[in-house]
Amino acid sequence: MSVVPAGVHTAQPVQFPPHANVNVSVGGPPGVAPVPDSYFTESKKGEVNELRNLLRNFATERDPKRKRDIIKKVIAYMTLGIDVSRLFTEMMLAIETRDLVIKKMVYLYLCNYAYSHPELAQMCTNTLQKDCGNDDPMVRGLALRSLCSLNLPQMVEYISEPLRKALSDHHAYVRKTGVMGILKLYHLDKESFEQCGFVDILYDMLRDVDSSVVANAIMVLNEVMSKTENGGMAINRAIMLHLLNRIHEFSEFDLVQVLELVPRYIPANADEGFQIMNLLDPVLRTSSCAAVLATVRAFLSMADQIAGSTEDCTEMKQQVVSRIKAPLITLVASGSSEVQYVLLKQIESLVELCPGSFDDEFRQFYIRYHEPTHVKFLKIEILPLLANLDNAPDIVNELGEMVFDQNTRISRLAVRSMAKIACRGNGGPGCAESIAQRMVELLDSNVEHVQSEAATALTLMLRKHADLKPVASMSLVRTLKYVQEPIGKASIIYLLGECGDLIHEAPYALEKLIDNYDTIKDVAVKHQLLNACLKLFFLRPPEMQRMLGRLLHKATDDVSSQDLHDRALLYYRLLRSGADPKTILAPIVQTNHNLGERVFTEDDDAQLRAELMEEFNTLATIYGKASVNFIRPEFQVVYKKMPAEHPLHEGGDTFGAGHVPVAPQSMPQPVVASREPAVAPVPETSAPDGFVADLLGFGAPSVPPVQASPPTAFSLASGVTMTGDEYQSKWAGISDADAIVSAVSLSSVPATTGEVESKLAGYSVVTMASGELPTEFKFFLYAKEAITGNMFLIQSNIGKAGEALMIITVKVSSEAGSANQQQQVDHLIQEIQKALG
Amino acid sequence: MISMIMILNQKGDVMISRQYRDDVSRAEADAFRLQVIATKNTGTESPVKRIENCSFLYTRHLNMFFVAVTRSNVNPALVFEYLYQFIRILKGYLGDDFDENAMRNNMTLIYELFDETMDFGYPQNCAVDVLKLYINLGDVKPKDEPAPSQLTSQITGAIDWRREGIRHKRNEVYIDVWESVNLLLSSTGVVLRNEVTGAVQMNTKLTGMPECKFGLNDKLVIEKEGQRKPGVEIDNCTFHRCVRLGKFDADRTITFIPPDGEFELMRYRVNDNINLPFRFIPAVQEEQGNTKVTINLKIIANFSDQLFATNVVIKIPVPKNTSKAKIKHNFGRAKYEPEQQAIVWRGKRFPGKSECHIQADVDLMPTTRPKPWSRPPISAEFQVPMFTSSGVHVRFLRVYDKSGYHTNRWVRYITKAGSYQIRI
Fold first, then answer.
1. Does residue A400 or residue A653 have the better pLDDT?
2. Which end of chain A has fewer CB atoms at under 10 Å, N or C?
3. For chain A, what percent of residues have pLDDT higher than 70?
4. Out of A330, A447, A620, whose CB is closest to B269?
5. Distance CA A183, CA A188 (A)
6. CB spacing of A374 vs B186 below 8 angstroms
7. Do the Cβ atoms of A397 and A414 come closer than 8 Å?
């Protein structure tokens, strides 16, 4: 018997009736008459047997399309959760094929069932190994991937050799598959992984020409090393700068891997930190929100590292956040709801990190009618954080619109958010009163949950601002009658107790409740009733005395809550002891009045926030919990910044770290005035948004990090001459966009142009023309590099007032292309620095 | 890293799944089905769900759930980017609105894609065009089979979005500038929020490896060039990865080697000086006794009379207990649609500089317990071809190629309503 649909031998793709046998093993829906087990097993056997027959014909089948269909059917059954592992032998026979599609499917089958048939799987290693040496790189890669995915410990000895070969394959596809293979080997057998010494090879592969191989190597190293003290790949300056210099080569996903290394890196000095930020700045313009968020994290971490003091740090973070604000808002505005959700969560933590930074964009956080509710919730929660003197009325109005939303959770949140604005007290004078006024109006609204929330909100606000009492007390007695929700009711009773001195009829409002004490179900209400009555007793003893007596009597008889019972007893005994009223009121009233400037304890979570910032842009920010709370120990990763000591003085490193232009040995002090944003006027090449100018202070990326290429010698040729016309045509021939701008600080402002000229001439920098303007000196200079023959055309000016700073604009005219221009210019700048400094 | 990707249907059955790590099992799929899909709260709950120590990040396509399962502290943005990209890839293979059946019929193709786009839980090469070159099990037929050596260099090459040796008989570029206007007006007529998000979509059919330079009437560029013409202040923009970002940062020129076929070149956002295509003047009165509501609405088209808006749909909400509505209007068709709880006013063509008016008297059924009406906003949908709210227009697109061929360019502008809401 067979349940196989008709049309097996046609060229049509196999059609499955919807839900056919999807969950055969799970059992049928309730209500279906029980079918004997044998029926199912037999029918399954039937299907599988049918397949087996088909597979037997496989070898003789000529038509490749039919061949594919047979294998496809097996895979389809596998997907449905039917165990087709009994066909293992037959499938193994099909592995010898030249058809890549069939090969892929058989490999998939193999990876799925190898674990249950280890001996049989071992038989096919031969084929796999052979395929690893195939001419087609696709086949090599595929075979290698499958070989490593078999997940059989006994296979390790067969894996390591092909793996090693793959790592030096001439084709990048094979290499990157090999790199991932190492990781699989690591999980399979850590010992042989150690023996093979793959870690060193992986570090070498960070220099691979292909960016995807590099990215894979980073991922693998990070995971393999995650349990070491470094918490991932060891980073040093050379590696970091090498990767950052190639940042534009990486694809969107790979880019994120590189960016995620940056927060763990400690820059050698402040300048380097600024350069890294400069280098990463363009990434903020990509449309990949993963890359943008990773950059944000990198920026924040750099700010942490660079800043000397905590004030510096806060200020710098403020600058960073204002730089990244626009890109984040754009992504939120155009992203789909899931991305919006993720971004809003990150923005929320940024707002808490730098209060005020997103204030002016508060309209972006107004909810839209058709948004999914999880996005709406987040927006409503963010809005109160953005309130300041100017926008608080607008935000409160907007929240007011949401109060009567059909979704009760939204309307509750809206009320809570309004209360938050009042409690945070950043809405300016009068804001809290107007919010309290609104709350009182809401108490009279006809919607139950809104009344309840408003009452609760009022209690919070009253604890913070005791002067709101007159506003809050207006309609309490009336509202007490129709608020039903326990929390709301408890809040109203609390308010009555607090405002007892203003509300004359308060005792009588409570009297009814005391009389109906037995009908009150909720313990919180009873608690508040007890507290409120006690407070009122001290305000108006004659009216309250008997009522309190009755209440205490009932409460001490109440067995529904131990806490309530004990508390009532305590009050009773205290009162009877004739103690000082202050002692008696202490346990209820003490915490209520002195809040003033302090925040509620639950809002004061600086430590948690700091922990979360460490894990910015991970699930931790989404859940609002540190990762230790939801990640199993074996998946925990230590977050460690490195390197602690900078190998700055080790020359001759393979990466050329010794020749970094900013390395301290070549520049006694950081010459670029990075701390004084004002002194760096940025000529035409500056980025349009003020970021570079105000944060970094040295204009366009003038002093980039090292080039990965081997160090180049640099010397200026002497005795070079050039005519004025030549100079002009060359200058005009190079676009302004290619010009490189830098600054050199001088010991003092020179008296004449000649002074500068003579100094420069000593270093083979020739003056074409110079002049003195009322405010500045201007120089037109040129120089020739001795080896490459590059001509440098330089225009520079020195301002007479203020800082002694020489602004230099360099254009390079070269025959050899622009490979090392940046580096050469850096050397040139150093020469000039030497001459004048 | 991601431990498993699974695709579930509406009932929560796993249609297809690929397990990359053995730290999760099908039991997790069950947990997800019971705790997320079965509760039917997927719009309300966050798209990131933690069940015990396992995190599920999911998104939807039609009624299918694409779920990534992980046990480690992943970068959520990255995971969502991957899921979106995977859906995009499937769309490329199976058509824009592929459904469950299409998925079942192409199971092996999907397995292949799973294997190629992710290895051991880390995203690998995800560029659709490149994948299409060497994975073509499904209906996609390779247009022209490239030589294998060239093909494989594409898989890992630096310009992975375009392959070499593309030929077209006619070299053409289509540029679509899509803008969506978002507006939120308070009931007193105050603009609460107003912005335009735009996208420049391109369809390139160009031979070789052409270098393109693209220019909008960006205010900063125009000012730099010293022209007198007014420019648009673009608040922020993001680009397709083919655009040279360094160049843009240096002098704000947009240069790139485009992918072949359709892609989104850039997105931008404009906040100031927005030309609203429609002005709404509503007046809604609830009568005493809660039995009647009178609605008056005037709409003025603000764009040139040479143009017209199409597919205009205006939804005017009415209370739940509406029994009937008497509607008078001078444009399109309007009727009360109980399932939408709104009067829906539709019109195919709305000429520019014109004005129209609707008046509705709504009778309410008396209810035992009067509930206040939440007064949802009036919302509008429309499209205005050849009009941009922000004023953005394409100034030039230059194509440079070695062979120096001639390129035909077509530019189209469409403004549509994003979320266009007027509170009443």
1. A400
2. N
3. 82
4. A330
5. 9
6. no
7. no
How many degrees, rounded to 5, is the angle at CA A265 between CA A263 and CA A269?
A: 115
Assess if residue B92 is contained within a domain.
yes
Same domain membership, residue B330 and residue B254: no
Shared domain for B267 and B347, answered yes or no, is no
Same domain? A698 vs A822:
yes
Work out the minimum CA distance from A372 to partner chain B, whole angstroms: 6
Boundary (domain end) residue, out of B126, B161, B193 = B126
Chain B CB contacts of A327 under 8 Å are: 236, 238
Residue ranges in B66-138 assigned as alpha helix (H): 76-94, 100-105, 107-117, 128-134
* B106–A290 C-beta distance less than 8 A: no
Residue B34 included in any domain? yes
Mutation site, A116, A287, A614, A628, interface B, largest B CB count within 10 A = A287
Confidence grade of residue A688 (pLDDT, cut at 50, 70, 90): very low
Nearest by CB to B241, which of A286, A369, A615?
A286
Chain B 121-140, residues with CB within 8 Å of chain A CB atoms = 122-127, 134, 137
B300 part of contact set with chain A, CB < 8 Å: no
Instruction: For A811-825, write each residue's pLDDT tens digit.
Output: 887 765 555 677 777
Pairing of strands B48-51, B14-19: unpaired
Per-residue pLDDT reduced to its tens digit, A361-377: 898 898 887 788 899 99
d(CA B181, CA B420): 7
A66, part of any domain: no
Distances in Å between the Cα of A599 and the Cα atoms of A347, A352, A593 are 22, 14, 13
Give, in order, the Cα–Cα distances in Å from B95 to each of B92, B105, B346: 6, 13, 30
Q: Which domain holds residue A765?
A: 657-836
pLDDT tens digit sequence for A380-408: 999 999 998 888 988 998 898 888 887 88
Q: Domain containing B31 — which CATH number?
A: 3.30.450.60
The reported pTM is 0.72
B267 and B414, same domain (yes or no): yes
Interchain proximity A404–B372, CB inside 8 Å: yes
Nearest-angstrom CA–CA distance, A747 and A805? 9
Confidence tier at A646 by pLDDT (50, 70, 90): low
Position A65 pLDDT exceeds 50: yes
Q: Which of B53, B75, B379 sits opposite A631 (nearest CB)?
A: B53
What SS3 state is found at A707?
A: coil
Q: Within this chain, do residues A262 and A340 fall inside the same structural domain, yes or no?
A: yes
Write out chain B residues lying below 8 Å of A365, CB-based: none
Mean pLDDT in residue range B106-113: 86
When pLDDT is averaged across residues A157-166 and rounded to a whole number, the result is 86
Domain count, chain A: 4
Peptide linkage before A643 cis (omega within 30 of 0): yes
Examine the pLDDT at A463 and tell me if it is beyond 50: yes
In a domain, B196, yes or no: yes
Based on the fold, state whether residues A482 and A582 are members of the same structural domain: yes
For residue A73, give the chain B residue with the closest CA.
Answer: B108
Interface ipTM > 0.85? no
- Confidence at residue B261, expressed as pLDDT on a 0 to 100 scale: 85
> Nearest-CA residue of chain B relative to A23?
B13
Residues B289 and B254 occupy one common structural domain: no
> Which residue range(s) make up the domain with B339?
278-385
For residue A593, pLDDT beyond 70: no
- Of B18, B121, B80, the C-alpha closest to A219 is B121
Q: Which residues of A63-88 are buried (b: 16+ CB within 10 A; e: fewer)?
A: eeebbbbbbbbbbbbbbbbbebbebb
Residues B52 and B34 in one domain: yes
Q: B102 touching A, CB under 8 A?
A: no
Among A382-396, A636-650, B160-174, whose mean pLDDT is lowest? A636-650
Residues B375, B393: one domain? no
Q: Do A253 and B46 touch (CB under 8 A)?
A: no
Taking an 8 Å cut-off on Cβ atoms, the answer to whether A334 and B267 are in contact is yes
- Tokens 């390790």 found at: A156
